[in-house]
Design a protein that fits this description.
InterPro entries: MFS, MFS_trans_sf. It is a multi-pass membrane protein. Keywords: Membrane, Transmembrane, Transmembrane helix. This protein is mostly helical. It has 17 helices and six strands. The protein has a four-stranded antiparallel β-sheet, with no helix packed on it. It has a two-stranded antiparallel ribbon with strand order 2-3. The protein starts with 6 loop residues before the first strand and ends in a 7-residue tail after the last helix.
Length: 456
């Protein structure tokens, strides 16, 4: 039996329906899944399994090997510190370029984004196990060529203008960033008064529209939906506006510190293992195996188990979901991250066993991946009126802060010591995690008191 919530078009329901808050779990215990697929066969939510898989694989392949470019072999010496630090300034600005084109491919619950990022350093393992540093670029070139083939034949267009809907008496919209959310009663009234009821006069009803051909779905180019002269200033203003929210600032600062800590460890583990623990240069890349397991651990905790916790918390809260519920999940990665930095710092000087820095790096990857997932999800959920710009603000602005921190880690190690440098970094990281306590208290008040804007 179909368990989808009842849907009515906007023109069939009045705006005065009472709102019950951010309902994630309904009275029957069913998780509200948004957006709800339309009857249009060209709706990306109605794509076949292989079409959805092709899109996801293409995007993931590109993202993974784009990040792998930053995993430089050890032969570059001090140049590695410069290149790895400066790339952070431009890394992860993808949401800006994709702001008008990316829509969700798979229907999900009212959790806007779950960006699980896991970097498997296969080229680094190959290049540091006996093939030489030049093979790093050969392997990378081969991987990019494979990605190009995947994109050409499987990167289907997901741009789709989704009509507003009413789900269980509440208006549901999808904005220009592809983010779907429920409107409150006041927001619904303002949208209907400013834009009127959506027209239902399409020439062909959704259910009767023909399915696009394979070549039409590829669609290598499309015309912009808005003028850049009006779109870019508006988005820049919304990004700055989002950064005034305590939740967005906290998500940006937390992800920045964790990213910088991860980069700092990656810049030093080559020296630690080769000179302090006498590893062969070609074996140093094996530390990334620990990073793989740590990354999977972060995905399991913040993704699968995190969603279970959010649904459980919403159920106990009368079905209502609050973005601040996600901050509770930061307790474990916060404690683990501080412990991992201290473990790495106090064993990196060679006075213990190589298992110390190895496990420090591995455990910190659990924190790293968990924070990336939780911080971006919290940002999109805590700034409901413009979650797209909020996400761009966090994902992009964190690189600027992380650049300053990561660039100074190696000089700090040279001036002091590994225990001192990593101890300072652990203290800063722990302090930022603790800022989640006042954010947990203050952010709902700020989000509640914001005005209603017309950018839907």
């Amino acid at each position: 039996m179909d368990d989808k919530p009842a849907i009515e078009l906007a023109e069939c329901v009045e705006a005065g329906t009472k709102s019950r808050g951010n309902i994630l779990v309904d009275a029957d215990g069913q998780v509200q899944r948004l957006p709800v697929p339309s009857k249009d066969p060209n709706d990306p939510l109605n794509y076949s399994t292989w079409e959805k898989t092709a899109i996801i694989v293409s995007c993931c392949w590109f993202c993974e090997f784009f990040v792998l470019w930053t995993s430089l072999p050890p032969d570059f010496g001090k140049l590695t510190n410069i290149l790895t630090s400066y790339h952070v300034l431009v890394l992860h600005w993808g949401p800006w370029g994709n702001s008008q084109r990316v829509l969700p491919v798979v229907s999900a619950s009212r959790i806007y984004y779950q960006p699980s990022r896991l970097v498997i350093d296969i080229p680094v393992l190959v290049c540091r196990n006996c093939l030489g540093w030049r093979w790093f670029y050969w392997v990378f070139a081969i991987a990019v060529a494979i990605g190009l083939v995947l994109v050409v034949f499987g990167g289907f267009e997901t741009g789709y203008k989704r009509r507003s809907q009413f789900v269980n008496g509440r208006m549901v919209i999808t904005d220009r960033f592809g983010v779907t959310r429920m409107l409150t009663e006041d927001e619904t009234r303002e949208v209907l008064e400013s834009q009127g009821h959506p027209s239902s006069g399409e020439e062909i009803p959704e259910e009767l529209r023909p399915k696009k051909t394979y070549w039409q779905m590829l669609k290598p180019w499309s015309h912009p939906t808005e003028s850049a002269l009006t779109f870019i200033p508006q988005i820049l203003f919304q990004i700055v506006e989002a950064l005034l929210c305590p939740g967005i600032l906290y998500a940006t600062l937390l992800s920045s510190v964790v990213l910088a800590s991860s980069i700092g460890m990656s810049l030093s583990y080559n020296t630690v293992l080769e000179y302090n623990y006498h590893w062969a240069p070609e074996s140093i890349g094996l530390i990334n195996l620990g990073g793989v397991f740590g990354g999977f651990g972060g995905m399991l905790y913040a993704g699968f188990l995190g969603d279970k916790f959010i649904v459980w918390k919403a159920t106990r809260n009368g079905g209502a979901f609050a973005p601040e519920h996600r901050l509770i999940l930061l307790i474990f990665p916060g404690v683990l991250g501080v412990a991992a930095l201290l473990l790495y710092g106090f064993t990196a000087d060679g006075g213990a066993t190589w298992g110390g820095p190895y496990m420090g790096w591995t455990l910190f990857q659990i924190t790293f991946v968990s924070v990336l997932i939780l911080s971006t999800s919290f940002a999109a959920e805590s700034w409901e009126r413009n979650p797209g710009p909020a996400l761009v603000a966090v994902v992009g602005m964190k690189n600027i802060v992380a650049f300053g921190l990561s660039y100074g880690i190696n000089p700090m190690v040279e001036k002091y010591s590994y225990p001192t440098a990593m101890g300072i970094l652990a203290a800063v990281t722990g302090g930022v995690f603790l800022l989640g306590i006042p954010v947990y208290i203050l952010n709902p008040r700020v989000s509640t008191n914001v005005g209603i804007y017309h950018t839907f």
